[in-house]
Write a structure and sequence with these properties.
This protein is α/β, with parallel strands linked by helices and about 290 residues long. It contains eleven helices and 13 strands. Strands 7-8-9-5-10-11 form a six-stranded mixed beta sheet, with helices on both faces. Strands 4-3-6 form a three-stranded antiparallel beta sheet, with helices on one face. It has a two-stranded antiparallel ribbon with strand order 1-2.
C-alpha cells in the first residue's frame, strides 16, 4: 500500500503518513498498573525503537497496540486498512513436530513457494526453505521469524526483541537487515529492545519506557537524558556514544567465524542457491508424517 507509506508533495518532498497513534494509554493487568499515560506516534518509512529495563512494559505496550491485551485508558488509532507484520519475542514450537521452514511460513500466510523463497532471500536465508525448524540456529530462526512477518507485505513492522538468542555480531547484522528492509520496502518499523547500543545503529527515534515514556528523541540525545541515566546508570550513558564495530572476519548465521575472503566467496553460492528452479510445489506431507 504505497499511499500509506508516504506520498510526494507538490515540491517533491515525501510526506510520511501516520500509521498508528497512541494517546494516554493505560494498562492494568491482574490489578497492577503496567502502563500509564503513554503517547506514541509512528509514521511510514521511520524506525522507532522502544527501550527500557526488564519489566518496563515494552511487550505489554506493543500487545496493547495490536489489540492483543485490553487497555483501560487512552486510545489507539490505526490508519485505515493498516497491515501489521508482528515478530513476537518468543514463539514456542513442539520440538518433535516435523515442520519445515516452508510449511511453517505457509501457516502464517497462504503464500506460494516462490513468494516464500523470495522473502527468505530478502532476509538472507533462501537455503533454509526445506530445512527443519528444530535444526535452525538462533540467528537462523530469528530471520525466519522476520520473513514470517514480512510475508504479509506490512505497512508497519513490529519487532519484539528481534536480536535475542543471537551473538553480538549477529545482533549487528540483524539491525542492519532491519534498516535494509525499511529502506527497500518503505514501511514503518517499531523495534523493542533493551539495548541502546544496538538500536543506535539503525533508528530514527528512541522512546525510553518504564511504565511511562521517560524520554524520547534521537539516540544520542536519549543516551544523555537524566531519565535514561537514572534507569541505566552513568556508565551505560558514557559507553553508548556512537559505537562502531569492525572485524577482520565475518560470521555465518550459526556463529562460526569465517575469514573475509571465505565470506565473500560464499555470497555467490548463496545467490546461486536462491536461483534454483522453483517449479511446482511438491505435495504437502500430512501432519506428523
Amino acid at each position: 500500500m504505497p499511499g500509506m507509506r508516504g506520498e510526494m508533495t507538490a515540491l517533491g518532498h515525501e510526506r510520511r503518513k501516520s500509521l498508528i497513534t497512541v494517546a494516554g494509554l493505560g494498562v492494568r493487568l491482574a490489578g497492577h498498573s503496567i502502563l500509564s499515560g503513554v503517547d506514541l506516534e509512528l509514521s511510514g518509512g521511520e524506525i522507532v525503537s522502544l527501550i527500557g529495563p526488564n519489566g518496563a512494559g515494552k511487550t505489554t505496550l506493543i500487545r496493547a497496540m495490536l489489540g492483543l491485551v485490553p487497555h483501560q485508558q487512552g486510545r489507539v488509532n490505526k490508519a485505515p486498512d493498516l497491515v501489521i507484520g508482528y515478530m513476537p519475542q518468543r514463539l514456542t514450537l513442539d520440538p518433535v513436530l516435523p515442520l519445515t521452514v516452508r510449511r511453517f511460513l505457509r501457516m502464517a500466510a497462504k503464500a506460494k513457494r516462490a513468494e516464500i523463497l523470495n522473502v527468505l532471500g530478502e532476509v538472507g536465508v533462501p537455503q533454509l526453505l526445506e530445512a527443519q525448524l528444530q535444526t535452525l540456529s538462533g540467528g537462523e530462526f530469528q530471520r525466519v521469524l522476520l520473513a514470517r512477518a514480512l510475508l504479509r507485505d506490512p505497512d508497519l513492522l513490529v519487532l519484539d526483541e528481534p536480536a535475542q538468542q543471537v551473538d553480538f555480531q549477529g545482533q549487528i547484522d540483524m539491525f542492519e537487515l532491519i534498516e535494509d528492509v525499511r529502506r527497500t520496502r518503505g514501511c514503518g518499523v517499531l523495534v523493542v529492545s533493551h539495548d541502546l547500543h544496538m538500536v543506535m545503529r539503525a533508528t530514527d527515534r528512541v522512546l525510553c519506557l518504564n511504565g511511562h515514556i521517560c524520554c524520547s528523541g534521537a539516540p544520542e540525545a536519549v543516551s544523555t537524558h537524566p531519565e535514561y541515566v537514572a534507569l541505566f546508570g552513568p556508565r551505560a550513558a558514557e559507553s553508548v556514544a556512537l559505537y562502531h564495530h569492525h572485524h577482520r572476519h565475518a560470521h555465518d548465521l550459526a556463529g562460526e567465524v569465517l575469514p573475509l575472503d571465505a565470506a565473500r566467496s560464499q555470497e555467490p553460492l548463496d545467490a546461486a542457491r536462491s536461483q534454483e528452479p522453483i517449479g511446482s510445489e511438491p505435495p504437502e506431507s500430512p501432519p506428523g508424517a
